[in-house]
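Need the bound structure for NDP, inputs here:
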Amino acid sequence: MSETFDAYVITRDEETKTQSGGWTTVSTDDLPEGDVTIRVRHTTMNYKDALAITGKSPVVRRFPMVPGIDIAGEVTASDSPDYKVGDEVIMNGWGVGEVHWGGYGKYARMKSDWLLKKPEGLSGAQCMALGTAGYTAALCVQRLQDAGLTPEDGTILVTGASGGVGSVAISLLAALGFTVAASTGRTEEEAYLKGLGATEIVDRNTLSEKGRPLDKELYAGAIDSVGSTTLANVLSKIKYDGTVAACGLAQGFDLPATVMPFILRGVTLAGVDSVMAPKARREAAWALLDKQLDRAKLAEITQSADIREVESLADDLIAGKVRGRLVFDID
Ligand code: NDP
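Answer from helper R.:
Posting the output first, comments after.
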């Protein structure tokens, strides 16, 4: 049976080559193909969602598009043997919100391969408080652990600290016993970042301009969501045999670095992608979050927001004015 509902839909005018978005009534018949239909209960806004809504970057590659790369909800119809009606599921990435309709509406239809069972110890709202940003932070932490880094090796630097990836990365690293330095442009957020578990605050301006190819060995590893000159400077400050997990481009997608940290200090630059990460890696990342993340810190990171305000929230997020993570309830 079909049902109509409101969704935020982005359309593109091919003549003027411009996109616009707004709330539109759509039907479950309009949903894209997939073997599982979900009643979306919660979603969130990631950097990528904000890029899609503002049109600042060509994130959306098929129109009309319902953005929302993260979904938590329950199955309302399923042709998959893996899911039955009523199952609580989450979904992150896989090109959803880019080429396949996402979570900014009451219903979504997905391929069952993209879904995960909701982790037992986290509510749907908590899963969205984490969302792709939190799950990516967990993937980054796992890259550092896979490289053999332990708390005894020294301090881990987290850049973009007040953002979604950064905030969750700090909390998770602190829960695992690591000493964390937080690089931020919002030094007024020192109390917030220390509350999450950072012991040292680094002014991001000290990392954003071109520095030396090799600098003092300060950090055993780093999680970088900023890219560009910041990542180049981070690499130059990593101790011998250290690892940097790189997942973002908040400053830029360039990397004006030299090979010196790699060839003289054996530093590893480990790339992290959340969108196409295989299912086993996703399940491990969510299990790590479920097991280790301090729920009080998660609450500290989270703000409930009204999904009707996605446009102004997207502007704020791109302008770096949103602290931590936004969660939307879908009525
Ligand atoms: P947020 O916008 O929440 O956080 C980004 C943070 O980066 C900001 O809060 C700010 O932190 C810092 N920042 C912003 N602009 C600049 C700048 N010009 N120079 C230096 N620092 C800056 O985004 P998310 O945490 O959700 O995502 C972070 C990055 O990771 C994004 O680039 C995103 O696209 C990417 N990403 C990649 C994924 C992947 O699969 N590889 C998955 C998820 C995200 P502060 O104010 O503390 O300095």
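Comments: Residues 46-48, 132-133, 136, 160-166, 184-186, 204, 208, 225-226, 230, 247-251, 272-275, 317, 320 surround NDP (CB under 6 Å). Residues 219 and 268 are 13 Å apart (CA to CA).
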